[in-house]
Amino acid sequence: MTIFSEGTAVSPLGEGRYRARLTEAFGFETKPGGPVVLNGGYLMAVLMRAAVAESAHAHPISTAVSFLRPGLPGPAEVVVESRKEGRTASMARASLMQNGEALLDALVTTGTLDPDAKPAYLGEPPAPMPAPEDCPPRGRERAKKGFPAHVDMRFDPAAMGWLDGSPTGRPEMRAHVRLEDGDEPDPYVLALAIDALIPVVANAGFPGWSPTVELTWHLRALPAPGWLTVHGTGRMVSEGWCDEDVEVWDAAGNLVAQSRQLARAARTRG
Amino acid sequence: MTIFSEGTAVSPLGEGRYRARLTEAFGFETKPGGPVVLNGGYLMAVLMRAAVAESAHAHPISTAVSFLRPGLPGPAEVVVESRKEGRTASMARASLMQNGEALLDALVTTGTLDPDAKPAYLGEPPAPMPAPEDCPPRGRERAKKGFPAHVDMRFDPAAMGWLDGSPTGRPEMRAHVRLEDGDEPDPYVLALAIDALIPVVANAGFPGWSPTVELTWHLRALPAPGWLTVHGTGRMVSEGWCDEDVEVWDAAGNLVAQSRQLARAARTRG
Questions:
Q1: Which candidate, A93, A237, B29, B116, has a CA 20 to 30 Å from the CA of A111?
Q2: Does residue B231 share a domain with residue B162?
């Protein structure tokens, strides 16, 4: 069992309740040696496992999440309430709880996707980016634990100049992503990947942490094995609110997931 | 009192419950003389009025909705459950109920926006489109009641060739929108406008009705008086699932709202 599959596993307690144990493996130290705060995509993956376990359908097609409180390593519970059972899609409300408080509230639509589906892609092609071996694994040489140690991210160097004071001026960030432990992409790995990027506003002069307030993402196709490529963009920052869109493409060149989040950002450009 | 303000009004029943009366003024006949099904954006507006009434904040910043069942004219109730009260943002779960069943389940984040905010717009400019007087008010001459009679929509003729068998080939649709009754734009009128377009996939060869399954939208700024301009685009159709993004711009040229929805579409191109 991999760290990710074990760290997102849920066991049924009956009546739509599921027990989970959140692992620090997908967390970040808030300061060296300080408390570990867990990645939002990881928390979504735990919640989605319970929502799908409670459904007659196989896949989480759409997941909308309010992020109420940060999640900490340790015991947690997911509460799932079925709201509609349908032939094509079912809907549920789900909450990830810890110490009696909701960390995440979610609306989850489940359905069953065909692995051999032939999507009609109607949009512009994604921005080209270098292969993973040509993208530096920033910070990984120092990471012995937590998210950077377990999630292999290779950032597009063309959008990383902000590190040296040369942001591109546009809200953008791109990376190849895979799990260190060998998990191949599935809808739960996609949940992690879709919220893994450094905030895109770092490239538009708004530095610092950007906590997610709301994130909605749609599973558009079942992903192929191999690297995932995530493309992040944004449109506007106003009164400390910023939007961020992420598309995830799989190694076969298919658009597999789309998200938009609303997050908090610095109020003024740094 | 206008038809819209009366048709979206809610009165408190205590303990987070609100009474509403859904009006056929924002509905469509499913067939001539047949049952009236209400517009999803209108239903969102009713739900959001109750969510904001229950909050210490003034504006619905983010609203994520699962559309479970169609809404019909007549009595309805909104149930709001506060989940977090914050200085910058508060979160609630809300449901619009009719005859004991949930029509819409929602996650609503409220906050308070500054009407004098100066947004940093970082994206590409919106596609240019003709002024309202140069966009034909399609179908309005025949509409004596329901949504087309109460919502003045002027479609960009460049994206309306699909009506005569000449779709643009891209998922796109654009229109100017205002309420017939004189209501100036506010967050509730934006909820209506953001789900008012003809499905964008009509321009990509997927005809027919496209029921919304999930829609999330963010209020990015308080809108100026005058026409709203809505720009709809999409990326992919697969297994009958399609995405649609809508941006709403106000008469002062500001991006005021962003949405994405996942909807059902025809499985094959017509």
A1: B29
A2: yes
